[in-house]
Design brief:
This protein is an alpha/beta fold and 362 residues long. Helices cover 44% and strands 13% of the residues. Strands 1-2-3-4-5-6-7-9 form an 8-stranded parallel β-barrel, surrounded by 8 helices. Helix 3 crosses helix 6, helix 8 packs parallel to helix 9 and helix 13 crosses helix 14. The longest helix has 19 residues. It is globular.
């Protein structure tokens, strides 16, 4: 693993590398199969147009998000792409045994050598009751508080370097480095880079202290973006992985051929968030359903606040918004998530952004 497997190269006139965050959204009248087929199409589009990496995020118990199993989805995408980096944005580590994640991502690395990222978060990716079911415990804070220890354990499994006397010294994540030490063994030189994800200062500081790359969830915690990135940079200590900080931010952005159409699409996505916030998550509604919905004053206030952090409009407007955000935050990479009911709308949005920046059409 080298810094070259972390840092991207800006394409076209983009100020920094552009990447894709796919929530594998399921729209009303669509199935999870439809959503996963869209992910294949979108990953191939992203590869063709020069986006640097493509991540999927772990969510649970949300009808409109079909990404409960990132490793399974990434294996599917690896079979349909050939160059673009693929990763988790992220795997929620407290939901899993570190050995299981090491094995899953070691398998992915064997499938797509040199193309896999392992992004890790400490939130549950769901509500408390679902998190309790996932972890088979109701002591949810314990999992979050133990995150640094879980991360250290996972890293040792990935590197196969538990010290002598450790109870896990003779346990090995396979595929992994142990295969190189077996008779006749040859091991890939690649190991999935570990990223820390966050929406507050905890993971920002931890990523800095450990010298790891950091991904911040600007798309749902915009008010914390600059403070978290500042904390990451101030805390950063050079490591064998990075000699300088590297931070990407997740950004909600939707481009359409007409500004009015972009507004219609983001209103539907915002209605989906309203329902999630009141404990009634569902499929992503159509723009027509959102236009007919009678919003309460409180809901309108929430939507105005939410959409103020969604960059949307024509391609030129979205490009200007992305450029401004990158200047304000100093982000080293922008990871765009385009949430909309229709697959065609999402695909068109990424094409428009790519065209706006003159990204390649390989």
């Amino acid at each position: 693993m080298t810094a070259d497997e972390i840092r991207g190269t800006a394409q076209g006139t983009a100020p920094v590398p552009l990447s894709v965050l796919d929530l594998v959204t399921v729209g009303a009248g669509r199935t999870a199969t439809d959503a996963l087929r869209t992910s294949v199409t979108l990953s191939r589009l992203a590869e063709r147009r020069g986006f640097h990496r493509y991540w999927v995020a772990e969510h649970h118990s949300m009808p409109g998000v079909a990404s409960s199993s990132p490793a399974v989805i990434l294996a599917h995408l690896a079979a349909h792409t050939g160059r673009i980096r693929l990763g988790s944005g992220g795997v929620m580590l407290p939901n899993h045994a570190p050995l299981v994640i090491a094995e899953q991502f070691g398998t992915l690395e064997a499938m797509a050598p040199g193309r896999i990222d392992l992004g890790l978060g400490r939130a549950p990716g769901t509500d408390g009751a679902t998190a309790a079911a996932l972890r088979r415990t109701d002591r949810l804070n314990e999992g979050a508080d133990d995150f640094p220890e879980q991360l250290a354990e996972l890293t040792r499994f990935l590197d196969d370097d538990f010290p002598d006397g450790h109870p896990y010294r003779r346990i090995h994540a396979v595929p992994g480095p142990i295969q190189a030490t077996s008779p006749g063994g040859v091991q890939s030189p690649h190991r999935p880079p570990v990223w820390l994800l966050g929406s507050s200062g905890f993971s920002a500081r931890l990523a800095g202290v450990l010298g790891l790359p950091f991904a911040f969830a600007h798309h749902f915690s915009a008010q914390n973006t600059v403070p978290a990135l500042d904390l990451y940079r101030e805390s950063f200590q050079p490591s064998a992985v990075l000699d300088a900080p590297y931070a990407l931010i997740g950004v909600s952005a939707l481009a359409a051929d007409e500004e009015q159409e972009a507004r219609r699409q983001v209103l539907a996505a915002a209605l989906n968030m309203v329902r999630l916030r009141i404990g009634r998550p569902g499929l992503v509604p159509t723009p027509e359903e959102a236009e007919a919905y009678e919003f309460s004053p409180m809901e309108r206030e929430f939507i105005a606040s939410w959409n103020s952090n969604v960059i949307h409009g024509t391609a030129d407007e979205v490009r200007a918004g992305l450029d401004d955000l990158q200047k304000r935050t100093g982000a080293d990479e922008l990871m765009i998530t385009a949430n909309a009911h229709s697959a065609d709308v999402r695909l068109r949005s990424y094409e428009l952004v790519a065209d706006a920046y003159g990204l390649p059409t390989t």
